[in-house]
Amino acid sequence: MSWQQRLSLALDARREKGQFRQRRVNQQSDARTLQIDGKRYLNFSANDYLGLSHYPAIKHAWQQGAECYGVGAGGSGHVTGYHAVQAEFEQRLAAWLGYSRALLFISGFAANQAVIAAMLSKKDRIFADKLAHASLLEAASLSPATLRRFTHNQPASLSKLLESGTEGETLIVTEGVFSMDGDSAPLAELHRLSERHGSWLMVDDAHGIGTVGEQGRGSCWQQQVKPELLVVTFGKAFGLSGAAVLCDDDTADYLLQFARHLIYSTAMPPAQVCALHASLTAVQQGDELRLRLHHNIALFRKGATERGLALLPSCTAIQPMIVGDEYQALALAETLRQQGCWVTAIRPPTVPPGTARLRITLSAAHQPEDIERLLEGLHHAKG
């Protein structure tokens, strides 16, 4: 079989299953609306949960940073790319979240890949939640460690795995808020199990940071848990991009020596870090935004219940509606677009077979009339 034949067969299989992905050109967007093919839609597919991507103080900070530092980092952090503004932000973020160190990464995917690749050896094992993010599961499957997956959000399932012995170390991996189901991990129970068995806990809180906990400190703070490895990202509630790993001094020094994504990638531009400083301030002072977000979540769920719309049990900004069939999910998404609401159909292999869904995301930027329009659109489409 030639390369071309292999590629064609794989693409045809995706098309036949209704799983073929296509990008659409987003001409202009914010947390509330977006424009595609010249048409304006209400945006219910963004992760900009607090609406900070267009926050004037954050945009101004990036512009000022570009004037001061230029638009690039100039190299990896181990060469010339580690600037004073980055060191200051790492210290500020670590203090805010109660850790001694924070390390900046260019993306959450890179942070998860780097940590797992650097930390695990052949004698070790990884116990990951079955629905953990693709970046975590891919890194775990590519690492030399043994990967086992426990039943989603079921500490009893993890407990059974932990009873077996091991020559090496054990890393337990989960998300704080799950990106596709929108539910929260029982972090306190997972942490108790981890401590009891001498394991380490790694939590990816991409969708919790900024939206829950005191000052938006996230899922771990909310549940009074301090995992050995905490990953927070800035592409959701912070309205930007990038990520950080929070840990102790020894772990940070180890990652600086062995995490290849840190050593060999160009560092985050300092102008972007200036924007992150402003975004962190906005998150810390964002109680009103969080109240508005959670009001919108409650308003949407109440309206869905009144209209007989079945949602997964989520109290977060991620509100999935399971459809099941890939083609039906695509058809529902298209019907909503005809009514001016942009909602993305999520299909396997992103989610398990038979669980294609509409992944509805809400923001503090949405107005009550926006949510009413979405609910009416869903009711009409499902009717």
Task: Give structural notes.
With about 375 residues, the protein is α/β, with parallel strands linked by helices. About 45% of the residues lie in helices and about 15% in strands. It contains 14 helices and 14 strands. It has helices at about 5-15, 55-70, 85-95, 110-120, 135-140, 155-160, 185-195, 220, 250-260, 260-265, 270-285, 285-305, 325-340, 370-380, and strands at about 30, 35, 40-45, 100-105, 125-130, 145-150, 170-175, 200-205, 230-235, 245, 320-325, 340, 345, 355-360. It is globular. The termini are far apart.
Short account of what is shown:
The protein has 14 helices and 14 strands. The chain has helices at 3-16, 56-69, 84-97, 108-119, 134-142, 155-162, 187-196, 219-222, 249-258, 260-264, 270-284, 287-306, 326-338, 368-382; strands spanning 28-29, 33-36, 39-43, 101-105, 125-129, 146-150, 170-175, 200-204, 229-233, 243-247, 318-324, 341-342, 344-346, 356-361. A hairpin with a 3-residue loop joins strand 1 and strand 2.
Describe the strand arrangement of the main beta sheet, using strand numbers: 4-10-9-8-7-5-6
Uncertain ranges: none
- Strand content is 15-25%
> What structural category do the secondary elements indicate?
alpha/beta
Amino-to-carboxy terminus distance: 47 Å
What does the average pLDDT come to? 95
Q: What's the oligomerization state?
A: single chain
Tell me the number of strands.
Answer: 14
Largest sheet geometry? 7 strands, mixed
Shape: globular
Helix content: 40-55%
Instruction: Give, in order, the helices and strands.
Output: HEEEHHEHEHEHEHEHEEHHHHEHEEEH
**Individual helix count:** 14
Q: Over the alpha carbons, how many angstroms does the gyration radius reach?
A: 21 Å
